[in-house]
């Protein structure tokens, strides 16, 4: 039981295809005590159904990560309910559909800022509250993608947001390390999620990966979940400020 009795907050479950859901299932099987946040009313029913069925009794809290008061409320609630937090899985990102295809140069100011706000700043905002109740040390992980390290056609404004997320992760790792809080990222190969539907020509890159990736196959959410379990467990106690690629090795290709 790699994470037995660890209190871990999972942010970003939308449906059974969510990467956050695959991670939650792995953490639950390994003994974690899970709490969940969901974005807003629209998601509440589907997330509640999923969670209550597989992990009855788990705490479910609403959190729009662009709203500081809602983030404050989540962590006040957690402090009252569990007192101490041992881990956070951050699997939240958004960019406007029109900014996920076509010309990056035409990105609007508000589209650029929205992607940064939700996909990158939210990690900083969450870490700032979490550090106050991670009194026994802890592990924070976020989800990133290759398009934040180099140009991936159509990923556009989300790539710029992921670059900011990756660097934010490193600065957070540096500042929270003395408190024994580790901060890392998992860079997953493309996975068919609801979010992936928003990226133009998503299917094209899947074929390229099957032909070119060292393992000659695409990434499964369960592989990402196992790496998340490693990051949430003591096995990764010496690892912080790291991006772990779970992408069949695709990122090593020029
Ligand atoms: C051309 C790149 C193909 C591989 C993209 C892999 C990937 C798939 C999904 C990812 O997550 C999101 C999350 C939100 C997002 O914004 C969206 C999603 C759906 C609709 C919409 O209006 N925005 C776009 C991608 C992500 O960061 C990376």
TrEMBL record:
Family recorded in the similarity comment: Belongs to the short-chain dehydrogenases/reductases (SDR) family. FabI subfamily.
Classification via InterPro entries: Enoyl-ACP_Rdtase_NADH, NAD(P)-bd_dom_sf, SDR_fam
Single GO term (MF): enoyl-[acyl-carrier-protein] reductase (NADH) activity
Binding-site positions, substrate: 95
Site residues (Involved in acyl-ACP binding), renumbered to this chain: 200, 203-204
The keyword Oxidoreductase is assigned to this record: yes
Pfam families for this protein: adh_short_C2
Chain sites annotated for binding NAD(+): 12, 18-19, 39, 64-65, 92, 162, 191-195
EC number: 1.3.1.9
Organism superkingdom: Bacteria
Pathway listed: Lipid metabolism; fatty acid biosynthesis
BP GO terms, sorted: fatty acid biosynthetic process
Active site: 145, 155
Protein name: Enoyl-[acyl-carrier-protein] reductase [NADH]
SUPFAM superfamilies referenced in this protein's UniProt entry, alphabetically: NAD(P)-binding Rossmann-fold domains
Known catalytic reactions: a 2,3-saturated acyl-[ACP] + NAD(+) = a (2E)-enoyl-[ACP] + NADH + H(+)
Keywords from the named record: Fatty acid biosynthesis, Fatty acid metabolism, Lipid biosynthesis, Lipid metabolism, NAD, Oxidoreductase
Coiled coil: none
């Amino acid at each position: 039981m790699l994470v037995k009795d660890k209190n871990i907050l999972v942010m970003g479950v939308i449906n059974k295809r969510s990467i956050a859901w695959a991670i939650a299932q792995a953490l639950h099987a390994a003994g974690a005590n899970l709490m969940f946040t969901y974005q807003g009313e629209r998601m509440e029913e589907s997330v509640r159904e999923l969670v209550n069925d597989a992990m009855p009794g788990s705490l479910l809290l609403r959190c729009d990560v662009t709203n500081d008061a809602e983030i404050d409320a989540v962590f006040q609630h957690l402090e009252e309910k569990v007192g101490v937090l041992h881990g956070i899985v951050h699997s939240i990102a958004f960019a406007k559909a029109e900014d996920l295809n076509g010309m990056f140069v035409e990105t609007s100011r508000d589209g650029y800022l929205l992607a940064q706000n939700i996909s990158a700043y939210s990690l900083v905002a969450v870490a700032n509250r979490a550090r106050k109740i991670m009194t026994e040390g802890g592990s924070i992980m976020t989800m990133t993608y290759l398009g934040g390290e180099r140009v991936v056609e159509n990923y556009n404004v989300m790539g710029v947001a992921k670059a900011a997320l990756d660097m934010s992760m490193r600065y957070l790792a540096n500042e929270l390390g003395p408190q024994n809080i580790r901060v890392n990222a998992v860079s997953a190969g493309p996975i068919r999620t609801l979010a992936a539907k928003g990226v133009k020509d998503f299917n094209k890159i899947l074929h390229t990966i099957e032909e070119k990736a060292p393992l000659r196959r695409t990434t499964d959410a369960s592989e990402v979940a196992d790496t998340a379990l490693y990051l949430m467990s003591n096995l990764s106690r010496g690892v912080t400020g790291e991006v772990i690629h779970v992408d069949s090795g695709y990122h090593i290709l020029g």
